[in-house]
Design brief:
- By secondary structure, the chain is α+β, with helices and mostly antiparallel strands.
- The chain is about 15% helix and about 35% strand.
- The longest helix is centred in the last third of the chain and has 15 residues.
- The protein is flat.
Length: about 230
């Protein structure tokens, strides 16, 4: 039996307005190698913001629609309209990753029924998502959707950086203050597990004491901690 799912969508209009809405979508029953996931958690990654708010001016946030179907609007400044030209006029689904419970399973995926799984297949800001079994990863018993919701974007980014570092013969990774904070935390964890060194760079906090030499940011070198 098909399910009706509310899905968050984003549209930049040709007139330079951002519109975030909830729309109903029919979710068909899963095929033999598919599952239907009831999404229980989905993070907002830095990469999600490009479609979620893009160049819109958040000071102009407004609301339309009804209580059941609210629409959030914001204006894109004229000088930034060109940045939203590519997706302009298209209603796009949001959410790079998420996690939830398998509520329907195909003939070959019955073993996942009732399991908590995560997916990085996109379009995860929704109530239900039909996915190929190859696009989901089941969690061990006892792990909740909220605990494993960020299992893709930042961990795989960190692993990718460390793998590239090793393939190219490097032994250390420098993570700057302008980089993604979650990716940095994942990098430190992955580096510890792989025996790599990493370095974090940051300027002195506002109101704090600056480095002794203002020309150079502060650096902290971390050596691997292997048990």
């Amino acid at each position: 039996m098909s399910l009706i799912s509310l899905e968050m969508r984003s549209e930049f209009t040709l007139a330079g307005q951002l519109r975030l809405s909830l729309e109903e979508r029919e979710v068909a029953p899963p095929g033999p190698d598919e599952v239907v996931v009831r999404v229980e958690a989905a993070p907002i990654n830095s990469a999600d913001l490009a479609l979620l708010i893009g160049p819109a001016d958040l000071a102009t946030l407004g609301g339309e629609g009804t209580v059941e179907r609210p629409v959030t609007t914001a204006t894109v400044p004229d000088r930034l309209v060109r940045l939203a030209a590519a997706p302009a006029g298209k209603s796009l689904a949001l959410g790079l990753e998420g996690a939830g419970v398998v509520v329907e399973a195909g003939a070959n995926t019955q073993h996942l029924l009732g399991k908590i799984v995560s997916s990085g297949a996109g379009q995860m800001y929704t109530q239900y998502r039909r996915l190929p079994v190859s696009d989901v990863v089941p969690f061990p018993d006892g792990v909740t959707a909220a605990q494993g919701v960020s299992a893709y974007v930042n961990p795989l980014t960190a692993l990718g950086m460390l793998s590239t570092m090793r393939l190219e013969g490097h032994s250390a990774l420098v993570h700057t203050a302008a980089a993604s904070n979650p990716s940095g935390r994942c990098s430190t964890s992955c580096a510890s597990l792989t025996g790599s060194s990493w370095s974090t760079w940051s300027e002195a906090p506002k109101g704090g004491n600056p480095p002794s030499d203002r020309r150079h940011p502060r650096r902290e070198l971390h050596q691997p901690r292997l048990s």
